[in-house]
Amino acid sequence: MGKDLPRHVGMIVDGNRRWAKQHSQESAAFGHRAGAAKIREFVTWCDELDIKVVTLYVLSADNITGRPSEELSELYEILANLTEGLSHEGRWRVQHVGRTDCLPDPLTQALVAAEARTLTNKGLHINLAVGYGGRREIADAMRSILRSHGKEGGTLEELAELLTPEMIADHLYTGGQPDPDLIIRTSGEQRISDFMLWQSAHSEFYFVEALYPDLREVDFLRAIRDYARRHRRFGS
C-alpha cells in the first residue's frame, strides 16, 4: 500500500450530535467528547500508516453562529482539552487553521500554545480546522496578498498581472502544505460543507455511513484501499 498512500488526508468530522441522541443523551457534549476521543484514535491510525498531514474539520464558522450557546461552551472546552492533549504527544505538530476572532480566549490560547509547543516537531502534521470556513479562507488569502503587495509599494494593476493560483495557495491557512489527496466524511452525508474549497480541487472523496464516534480502523483502511485503487485524473 505504501506508494499509493495519500500524503494528506482531510476528515470532515460529522455525526457527534446524532450519536449522542442515539445513546439517549440529551446533551450534545456526550457526542462531542466521544468524537474528541475518536480524533485521538484517528490521528494515531494516520501516524501508523506514515501519512504526513491530516486536517480535521471539527468546528465550522457556520456552526458557531448556528449552535446553542450552552453546547458551544461545552464544545470549546472539549476542543481546548483535545488540542492540549495532542500537543503533548511529543512528535506531532499541531496547527490551527481558521479564524480566532470568533473563538473564546481559552480556546484561542490553547490553539496558540499548541502551535508554539509543537512547532519544531517532525512527525505527523495535524491541522485543526476550528472556526473554519473555506470561502473565508480564500478571502483572507486575498486580503493577505493585497496587504503584502501594498507594503511593497505595488499597484493593483501590477498585482493583477502577478496574481496566480500558486500565489493564492501560498497565502491560505495551509500555505506550504500539500493539498489533501483524500477527503473522508462520516455520517453518510455527501457534501463538502465549505471545507478546503481551494485545496480540494483534485481531491478524492470517500463517504462513510458510520457516525464519527463509531468510526472503526477498518472503515479508515477501506477508505485508504479505495483511494489506492483509483486512477487520479487531476481534472482531466
From TrEMBL:
<comment type="subunit">
    <text>Homodimer.</text>
</comment>
<feature type="binding site">
    <location>
        <begin position="60"/>
        <end position="62"/>
    </location>
    <ligand>
        <name>substrate</name>
    </ligand>
</feature>
<dbReference type="Pfam" id="PF01255">
    <property type="entry name" value="Prenyltransf"/>
</dbReference>
<feature type="active site">
    <location>
        <position position="14"/>
    </location>
</feature>
<keyword id="KW-0460">Magnesium</keyword>
<feature type="binding site">
    <location>
        <position position="19"/>
    </location>
    <ligand>
        <name>substrate</name>
    </ligand>
</feature>
<dbReference type="InterPro" id="IPR018520">
    <property type="entry name" value="UPP_synth-like_CS"/>
</dbReference>
<dbReference type="GO" id="GO:0045547">
    <property type="term" value="F:ditrans,polycis-polyprenyl diphosphate synthase [(2E,6E)-farnesyl diphosphate specific] activity"/>
</dbReference>
<feature type="binding site">
    <location>
        <begin position="15"/>
        <end position="18"/>
    </location>
    <ligand>
        <name>substrate</name>
    </ligand>
</feature>
<feature type="binding site">
    <location>
        <position position="185"/>
    </location>
    <ligand>
        <name>substrate</name>
    </ligand>
</feature>
<feature type="binding site">
    <location>
        <position position="32"/>
    </location>
    <ligand>
        <name>substrate</name>
    </ligand>
</feature>
<feature type="binding site">
    <location>
        <position position="204"/>
    </location>
    <ligand>
        <name>Mg(2+)</name>
    </ligand>
</feature>
<keyword id="KW-0808">Transferase</keyword>
<dbReference type="GO" id="GO:0016094">
    <property type="term" value="P:polyprenol biosynthetic process"/>
</dbReference>
<keyword id="KW-0479">Metal-binding</keyword>
<protein>
    <recommendedName>
        <fullName>Isoprenyl transferase</fullName>
        <ecNumber>2.5.1.-</ecNumber>
    </recommendedName>
</protein>
<dbReference type="GO" id="GO:0033850">
    <property type="term" value="F:Z-farnesyl diphosphate synthase activity"/>
</dbReference>
<feature type="active site" description="Proton acceptor">
    <location>
        <position position="63"/>
    </location>
</feature>
<dbReference type="InterPro" id="IPR036424">
    <property type="entry name" value="UPP_synth-like_sf"/>
</dbReference>
<dbReference type="GO" id="GO:0000287">
    <property type="term" value="F:magnesium ion binding"/>
</dbReference>
<comment type="similarity">
    <text>Belongs to the UPP synthase family. Z-FPP synthase subfamily.</text>
</comment>
<dbReference type="InterPro" id="IPR001441">
    <property type="entry name" value="UPP_synth-like"/>
</dbReference>
<comment type="function">
    <text>Catalyzes the condensation of isopentenyl diphosphate (IPP) with allylic pyrophosphates generating different type of terpenoids.</text>
</comment>
<feature type="binding site">
    <location>
        <begin position="191"/>
        <end position="193"/>
    </location>
    <ligand>
        <name>substrate</name>
    </ligand>
</feature>
<dbReference type="GO" id="GO:0005886">
    <property type="term" value="C:plasma membrane"/>
</dbReference>
<feature type="binding site">
    <location>
        <position position="14"/>
    </location>
    <ligand>
        <name>Mg(2+)</name>
    </ligand>
</feature>
<feature type="binding site">
    <location>
        <position position="67"/>
    </location>
    <ligand>
        <name>substrate</name>
    </ligand>
</feature>
